[in-house]
Amino acid sequence: MQNQSSPSPSPSPSPSPSPSPPTQHPFFTTIPIPNPKDHKTTLYIILATSLFSLLFFLSSSSTSTSTSASASQIRPDPYLFPTSQTSSDPSPPSIAYLISGSAGDSGRILRLLLATYHPKNQYLLHLDRTAPQSERDGLALSVQSTPIFKAAQNVNVVGKADFAYPKGSSDHKTTLYIILATSLFSLLFFLSSSSTSASASQIRPDPYLFPTSQTSSDPSPPSIAYLISGSAGDSGRILRLLLATYHPKNQYLLHLDRTAPQSERDGLALSVQSTPIFKAAQNVNVVGKADFAYPKGSSGISFTLRGASILLRLSQNWDWFVTLNAADYPLVAQDDLLHILSFLPKSLNFVNHSSYIGWKESRKLRPIIVDPGLYLMEKTGMFYATQKRELPNAFRLFTGSSFSVLSRNFIDFCILGTDNLPRTLLMYFANTPSSLSNYFPTILCNSHKFNRTVINNNLLYATFDKSSYDEPRLLSSSDFEVMIQSGAAFATRFKSDDPVLDRIDREILGRSPGNVVPGGWCLGESGNHTCSVWGDSNVLRPSLGARRLEKRIVELLSNGSSFSVLSRNFIDFCILGTDNLPRTLLMYFANTPSSLSNYFPTILCNSHKFNRTVINNNLLYATFDKSSYDEPRLLSSSDFEVMIQSGAAFATRFKSDDPVLDRIDREILGRSPGNVVPGGWCLGESGNHTCSVWGDSNVLRPSLGARRLEKRIVELLSNGSSFSVLSRNFIDFCILGTDNLPRTLLMYFANTPSSLSNYFPTILCNSHKFNRTVINNNLLYATFDKSSYDEPRLLSSSDFEVMIQSGAAFATRFKSDDPVLDRIDREILGRSPGNVVPGGWCLGESGNHTCSVWGDSNVLRPSLGARRLEKRIVELLSNGTFRSHHCVVE
């Protein structure tokens, strides 16, 4: 490999102060609503203060800033309501509320806002299109004129409303639109038209919100590693492509395959080294020892993996990997691309993929080939075997495109070999035609680690003639408008120096011949030398191309929403579209009645990532008339006691200004008319102005409502137990009810003999999360009579030596006060009658009172018992005994 020389960059004038990045609006996690006609506004808070302590590990905080560290303040059982202040409570969570209604509901929305308000939360208010714009404007003005909302800057009103039909599918599409429009859609380009202005007055607000605050700055731009390749005669095209994609934050590796003479390769390297900007940035390298890369063989995979491994060695700081051919060209500037990618998770992979094989099965997957590019120095024809092979059943094949945008994590996975899957597929595809287009899609979609990071689009514009789908047709000036409006980041295939490339340079990239595309890092005067003076490479100046790319990505990421208390991770999953499941179900439920009530449950329970995070209760109190289950009946004062004691956090459905709402305000929430619910953050004097003085929003003051909610959640999370040495994670899994599996098996084993011995093993070995954590030994010594295996036989002094030398940590079964127990106390545990076993934490004098004086409980004093137990565990974990797939069917 030929590297450019590495002198220090020449000094340049001090760059001007970096401009303030544009603001961005936060993601809004929604609390959508169930089915009734006006259900959006009938939902009312019963236990707002309970919600503030929804994670019932939180203590009853006070406004005092100093706490005692005395032993009396040690946290009690976490499943009990805390009765004292603790010293290390976690920081309270934050909830994002979406509160919506129809015409005439602005007052109800304001009341609901006041009832749920906390300065740590985020609120988005929505009046649908049945409401006149004047009502929407009035709602926004009411928010802006309320001092507490104006000060906290956490309440926004949707300005561009939608319809939401409770019986149709537009309900979840509406929620989707709100989430996307206020978070992702606006989070990207519409945050700002440019990063070049440091003036707050020039910050572009979200066009669909009534903003009451400015938000935090843009994230740091990512970096892309480009592998740009070509054949004989392509050095000029490679240089032009390098200039069109150049940005100082990126890494570039240029490759001319073996069809090109060495002189052309040397000339390419000299061109790079003689370009001042590349020489200064030191981020462009040329492969010196070239490879063949047959498009119809498997040598393309070998070349791509080699290029990726070189880029990994050259820099640790890039985030995505892109392979470009000399026939490709960008449709957006790097400032546009980096700007959009900076708002996306760096785990995403943009890859075309399909499990539908069809005609490709016989033409591209079953034939057996030998690619001479893997073992011959000269170019020769491809060798085809006369026989064909069956399709594999150890993994599923996926087809796609040789072009993709791959994450750094995925490249590490493939190159560093953390799994046999990439190596297995590499060997399989070594004899498969056109394997590069199938290799990465098959790894991604067969990997549990990465199959949820794939977006089924590679951001490349290409068109095919109907007569042939082997390669894209050549693009020309007649395709200009269509490919630009497609929103793609790149396009293929172009002829060398086609006039359309000049038009792209001129109208889209703003690039003059022989120069790089100017970006926010260029501080020189306008013209051919704009980038001769450098500024901060983190400063981006997105153009209209970012809007087109943003629109395209939003279309790819569009998914739905539903009623539930939903985690932020799950909302990210749906909005960022890292799985096809939300999109598939969105299309399915588009024509399904009452689809809002089914959409999210279906995603959750069909998703391997989230089906173990569901608690089958939405913390909402609702009752139905026997004659109709279409919508809940109206609640009134006669329901007050029952719904409060239910332990629910919310209730539905209420009439507007029903007297029971006043009673809830008065007796449960402690809220006076027109005011928010006072919490630990309110430091004003008691009365209507309690919250006019603010304290720390992390301070909570839970009331009896927290006890009711805690009791309800504990009931929901209660599951069974079994005999074993079980991990804390597994106990959390069973007790906290993040999967229906423990409950299902609990019900099954309720009527099964000897179910205790079967319950936990069945959960463990049926759980994808825990079946690889099982060691097939419970560290218990027990022996059985040959005549009966129903229960262990009684142990006695004759068993002492055998059970001690077994290395077990426990033993069963003993008679009460059997002499062997006294021998174990005396010879093994060192315990005297009536006392505990002395350990490293005991500092008293030897004898019966050794542990009357305490030391550090972290100090251990292991005895010979530790050696025996260690020997036993080493045997269990040895390769011959322990297997990662221990739950196997024998």
Automatic annotation (TrEMBL):
The chain crosses the membrane at residues 41-58, 174-192. Residues 1-32, 65-93 are annotated as: Disordered. GO terms for molecular function: glucuronosyltransferase activity. The keyword Mitochondrion does not apply. Residues 8-24 have a biased composition (Pro residues). Coiled coil: none annotated. One of its GO terms (cellular component) is membrane. It is a single-pass type II membrane protein. It comes from the Eukaryota. Keywords: Glycoprotein, Glycosyltransferase, Membrane, Transferase, Transmembrane, Transmembrane helix. InterPro entries: GLCAT14A/B/C, Glyco_trans_14. Pfam families: Branch (PF02485). It is found in: Membrane. PANTHER family: CORE-2_I-BRANCHING BETA-1,6-N-ACETYLGLUCOSAMINYLTRANSFERASE FAMILY PROTEIN, GLYCOSYLTRANSFERASE. This is Beta-glucuronosyltransferase glcat14a. It comes from Quercus suber (Cork oak).
